[in-house]
Amino acid sequence: MPGGYAGKFAEIDLSRGTVREVTFPEEVLKAYVGGRALGAWITWQRLKDKPWEAVDPLSPDNVLVFLIGPVNGLYPGSRTIVTGKSPLSNGILGSSAGTWFDAAMKMAGWDGFIITGRATSPVYIWVFDDKIEIRDASKYWGKRMTEAMKGILREIRDELAKKRPGRWPMVPPIALIGPAGENLVRNACVMFGQYDAAGRGGYGAVMGSKNLKAIVVYGTKPLPEPANKDAWKTLWTALAQRNIQRYGAYRRWGTGRGLWQFGWWTASLPIRNWQDEWHEKIVAGPQEYEHGLWVRVFWAGCWMCTQHCYKTAVVRLEDRPERLVSELPDYENQATQGSILDEWDPDQICINTMFASELGLDTIGIGGTVAFAFELYEKGILTREDTGGLELKWGDSKAWRAMLEKVTKREGWLGEALARGEYRAALEIARRKGLPPEKVLYYAIQCKGIEWGAHGIRSKLDYTRWTITYAVSVQGGDHTSIASPRLEDYEITPIINDTGAFCSFTAPPIEERAMWLTAVTGWSYSVDTLKEVAMRALMIQRAALLLGGPDVRWVRDGKAIDENPGRMMEEPLPSGPVKGRRVDPEEFKRELATYYETHGYDENGIPKSEVLRALGLADVDEALNRIRKK
Ligand code: SF4
User: Fold this and answer.
1) Which of 250, 302, 304, 306 to mutate to test the pocket of ligand 1 (most atoms within 8 A of CB)?
2) How far apart are CA 124 and CA 367, in angstroms?
3) 301 CA to middle of ligand 1, Å?
4) Ligand 1 pocket residues where CB is under 6 Å
5) Interval 118-138: pLDDT, tens
6) Could you report the per-residue pLDDT of 540-562, keeping only the tens digit for each?
7) End-to-end Cα separation, the chain, in angstroms
8) Between the N and C ends of the chain, which has fewer C-beta atoms within 10 Å?
9) Residue 245 contacts by C-beta under 8 Å, 6 or more apart in sequence?
10) What SMART domains does its record include (predicted)?
11) How far away, in angstroms, is 541 Cα from ligand 1 center?
């Protein structure tokens, strides 16, 4: 067995109530490593012959996969990847989350959980070293995130305390869903504790569709040894020290410090559903931000991470003297639960974020979806009758939270429509209002059914500076996995990160990531072989996305639908340092053609047969014949 791996995966069949140990041949692990790449391969292998297009992501046929990679536990700052067929894109996303869940998995002796079927009643999974139990979770079903989490963890803790008094100092890491996941809201996330989440892709809804409330993991085994201990020690020391120095400000304030300054510099922050992307809200520098407002420096974070980017916020409540303590929302949450609504009060932004998390919603996806509804209300497409009497006015956080709740409960026809995500909601709203779909889709800021992260493309001042950033990404609007015309840039880098599975904030350059994987596994990885791993994952993700189904497809007449929302192509930025800038359609065409060429796609955006076969993906090639032009 190579170093770094725990050595086995668990297949948990919730329909039958069985657990089976699974291993993969060395050549599969070498070719796909772990995390996102291996998750894409497993998902594809399990669903490809059903066939892929026929699998409803919210049916028992789908798989829900929790994976780590060889470096998890042996690297300062790594992630758990959740994947399966996405109910938003109908493709595959690698959805990444932090905490200590990954290290606990490895110490329990598992490299991954492959969850299939559907339980007949609500359950949670308790993993204690090699033993995996499926337990009744009926009393936690319907509960909001914190209440359910506390209940399940209390149950586990009491049990452990009775078994071995005084020997269980830690609360086991947990992954769970809130009411949104239970109600199959497609923007439901998998929460990892109170403040972290595998947000993108809708995997909370997949978990809910399986009647699975939570997974709790406790491991007592030593972590597996790296293959080359000396090389590993050298890499660890150098990286840990470098990260402490390199990210001083980031370590001190987290990404949350960026809202006022970063959005102002880059003119790429969503404001009023992306009607604008620039603001003049620079009211504080870092010191004021920390001491005068609401951030408390508190170093907490993922397993062994030297960044420890989690910060606490102390929140003032309007109507009560008490203060709430919460994690400081990160940059994206501050945008998608704040500026996108034209809400700039830090306390309200924090409350919105906590509220969405309590319901188990992906703050980014649901933020985009609800802001879209606010704009349709402003434009008169939606009325008070449609919203159940709510007035959707920019800056009104109370109305915002009321809408989050309506969507979670699928209340009224609008709550039901928005629970399907922004893209499907746009189609339903257009149908009900007798409007052409493109008129409503114009305001839906998403690509491939995934709402955009908090970084716009029009200003070209952010890292999302390409016109095709989201339009051709295999993860759609996910800002953590963006596309660029050049192969060596994105989206290869985040795939390698999610595969290792390194946190993108802690990951060293690609050469060093190859050294890490070599030192840990004992196999020889180079930059080129790592890129090949990433390309295999990319091709599987692209094929799954284009095959899509059963409801939404991203291919029209044999040509991939790689498009930006209408607003980005037609509306110039109304303010800021690059006022007047919009996406140039000619530049978009050029960048898309270059992307197709550099990534081995044909002129219709379908991966070429020879490229797939050179990567050992003959089965993917054959499946794509179903959508290729004859
Ligand atoms: S930088 Fe933050 S998210 Fe990344 S591993 Fe460290 S604590 Fe976790």
Assistant:
1) 302
2) 28
3) 6
4) 77, 98, 301-302, 305, 307-310, 503, 505-506
5) 999 999 999 999 999 999 999
6) 999 999 999 999 999 999 999 99
7) 45
8) C
9) none
10) AFOR_N
11) 25
